[in-house]
């Protein structure tokens, strides 16, 4: 897709090619479904479509990609993925291998979801002719839910396997609090609480000045946003270690499911 300079009529999100867009859609819209599932040329070739046995006078027919159409509800659909392309990659300041999903008949809720997806993936949104790169606060304020609990000592050993400076700062009858300090970027709190049906590990960033982040997403030029985003890999690595020890599920501050593959991608940032 070519977004085009000044395309005020286009609303879209740009995400990495590995993004599970259906899974992210179902976090907000449980009835989301593919009307037309996307297929790459390689997918079609593997299925034995036109490429296999489709010849005319000795010339092979190369299958073309099938662009997906994802129904979100209330007449709103998401069409993609399509290639970002070199010119638009420069415009979005994202790799040209990333992909575009266009939102048709957007509503306030689906537009909010589009921004949540951009926060989740480190991507960007084009709406009303303007490009926005949401801050990644939702990537730090994770929640890991599981049926099994770890003692404070077990959790502290686990977290120190990622960052040795972690400390236990408090405990009571329903849980405990760990702090993961950094040299310049504030710290991450891991609040472990017993809840009906299991336990929740809630991650929260605290700025270098001691101000707790409530999950609101500041501008990309904010020094606080930069400091917070530098801790995204640390949070991802801790979450991965937790999920290795206790079967569970990770979600972000926008309620989007964070897969193991996505956590591994963040851990490598």
Write the layout of secondary structure elements.
Elements: E1 12-15, H1 21-28, E2 33-36, H2 41-46, E3 55-56, E4 59-60, E5 68-73, E6 76-83, H3 86-92, E7 99-104, H4 108-121, E8 124-127, E9 130-132, H5 137-140, E10 143-146, H6 152-160, E11 167-172, E12 175-181, E13 187-195, E14 198-206, H7 223-230, H8 232-245, E15 248-251, E16 257-258, H9 260-267
Antiparallel strand pairs: 1-7, 1-8, 2-5, 3-4, 5-6, 6-7, 8-9, 10-14, 10-15, 11-12, 12-13, 13-14, 15-16
Helix pairs in contact: 8-9
Descriptive tags:
single chain, 30% strand, 2 domains, 29% helix, TATA-Binding Protein, 269 residues
Question: What features would you describe in this structure?
Answer:
With 269 residues, the protein is an alpha+beta fold. It folds into 2 domains: 10-48 and 61-132, no CATH class; 137-268, TATA-Binding Protein, CATH 3.30.310. The protein is 29% helix and 30% strand. The protein has 9 helices and 16 strands. The chain has helices at 21-28, 41-46, 86-92, 108-121, 137-140, 152-160, 223-230, 232-245, 260-267; strands at residues 12-15, 33-36, 55-56, 59-60, 68-73, 76-83, 99-104, 124-127, 130-132, 143-146, 167-172, 175-181, 187-195, 198-206, 248-251, 257-258. The strands form 3 sheets. The protein has a 7-stranded antiparallel β-sheet, covered by helices on one side. It has a 7-stranded antiparallel β-sheet with strand order 11-12-13-14-10-15-16. A hairpin with a 2-residue loop joins strand 11 and strand 12 (175-181). Helix 8 (232-245) packs across helix 9. The radius of gyration is 21 Å and the shape is globular. The two termini are 27 Å apart. Residues 49-63 and 217-221 have low confidence and may be disordered.
């Amino acid at each position: 897709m070519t977004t085009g300079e000044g395309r005020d009529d286009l609303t879209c999100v740009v995400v990495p090619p590995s993004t599970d867009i259906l899974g992210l859609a179902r976090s907000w819209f449980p009835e989301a479904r593919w009307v037309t599932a996307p297929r790459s040329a390689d997918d079609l070739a593997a299925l034995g479509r036109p490429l296999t046995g489709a010849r005319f006078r000795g010339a092979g027919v190369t299958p073309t990609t099938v662009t997906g159409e994802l129904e979100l509800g209330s007449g709103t659909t998401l069409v993609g993925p399509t290639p970002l392309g070199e010119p638009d990659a420069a415009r979005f300041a994202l790799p040209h291998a990333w992909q575009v999903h266009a939102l048709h008949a957007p509503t306030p809720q689906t537009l909010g979801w589009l921004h949540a997806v951009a926060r989740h993936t480190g991507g960007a949104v084009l709406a009303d002719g303007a490009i926005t790169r949401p801050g990644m606060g939702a990537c730090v304020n994770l929640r890991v839910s599981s049926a099994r609990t770890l003692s404070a000592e077990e959790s502290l050993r686990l977290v120190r396997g990622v960052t040795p400076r972690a400390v236990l700062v408090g405990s009571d009858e329903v849980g405990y609090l760990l702090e993961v300090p950094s040299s310049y970027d504030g710290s991450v709190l891991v609040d472990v609480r017993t809840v009906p049906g299991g336990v929740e590990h809630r991650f929260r960033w605290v700025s270098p000045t001691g101000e707790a982040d409530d999950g609101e997403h500041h501008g990309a030029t904010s020094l606080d946003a930069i400091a917070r985003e530098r801790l995204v890999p640390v949070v991802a690595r801790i979450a991965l270690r937790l999920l290795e020890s206790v079967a569970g599920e990770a979600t972000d501050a926008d309620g989007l499911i964070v897969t193991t593959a996505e956590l591994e991608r963040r851990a490598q940032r």
